[in-house]
Write a structure and sequence with these properties.
alpha/beta, 7-stranded parallel sheet, 9 helices, 7 strands, 11% strand, globular, binds NADP nicotinamide-adenine-dinucleotide phosphate, oxidoreductase activity
Length: 309
Amino acid sequence: MALRQLHSMSPCSKYTTQSHSVPLNISTGYKLKNFLEVFCFSHIFTEAIIFYIKMEIESVLITGANRGIGLEIVKQLVNLPKPPRLLFATYRDKSTVQALEEIRDSSKQTQILLIQMDITNSKDIESARKTVEDLVGAKGLDLLINNAGVLKTEGFPEIAGENMLYHFSTNTVGPVMVLKEMFPLLQRSVAHKTTETDVFRTTVLNLSSLGASMGKMRVENPDKWLQGLGYRTSKAALNMAMRMIACTMKDSGVLMVNLCPGWVKTDMGSNAADLEVSESVSAIFKTLSQLNDSHHGAFIDRNGKTIPF
Ligand SMILES: NC(=O)c1ccc[n+]([C@@H]2O[C@H](COP(=O)([O-])OP(=O)(O)OC[C@H]3O[C@@H](n4cnc5c(N)ncnc54)[C@H](OP(=O)(O)O)[C@@H]3O)[C@@H](O)[C@H]2O)c1
């Protein structure tokens, strides 16, 4: 097959843009959306209802949840109209979990479990899977958010091999290994969703970065774009790894998406960033509620717009 043809293909045949013709749970949301719009509800009202229904998530795991975007994801999840029943929030260092503990202790509807997991440590990942498995049981895991990531800017030629490996180990290998370990639990979630009322699609959301886009990397870009060689290449590798897995697991029913949250005011993004963390995460949730088969294996921004690989 010609390379050009391969590149222009949807990542896998089953997940085409004709989501209406695919007999998956998400189609229920579309039928409902059409129904509401036909019967003269306003677009905004319809979107709000769809968001409410589609965001009924039973269980979710977020890596790197003790600060930044991960912590805000936890905050907003527990404040959903129908929050998850089970939320697994991972951290590395016990001394950094105060904010998470406060949310856990005040959460009324969601059982929040704090799990120590370094995503570069296979024993930690396995032990986390056991904890999750014990609690989710046959219902499986509905949503995995691969959020943990690192950034230490270094450009060429000063970059050290250690810097490259540091980024690849956390930003590429870690999320893939977490997904590998959790995949059977995600499959259980798919298998368990048999009724027409289960609208939220079992999903893997990978936090990527616009900075990983080769299509956007040009000579005329500002010099600062050229810093973060390890970070950008490791996120580009993450995109490819997750796109390949999306193709490999095309019949699994698990939706996999790579998403850039925007430039966000966190320790990583710095105070100079464009977006408050709450703005970024609200947009991510709105997009999450609107994902369909066409997004499988895709690279999108927080508003759902396609980013060139
Ligand atoms: N902020 C932005 O502007 C921006 C832009 C594009 C993409 N992103 C992506 O969004 C995600 C979250 O970014 P952020 O801004 O929230 O970053 P952040 O504030 O620096 O937080 C990073 C989180 O990842 C965790 N982490 C790092 N290495 C880990 C490891 N080996 N195992 C487990 N957890 C680990 C950190 O835990 P510790 O507290 O233990 O270090 C922390 O919880 C990242 O994947 C990032 O690349 C961010």
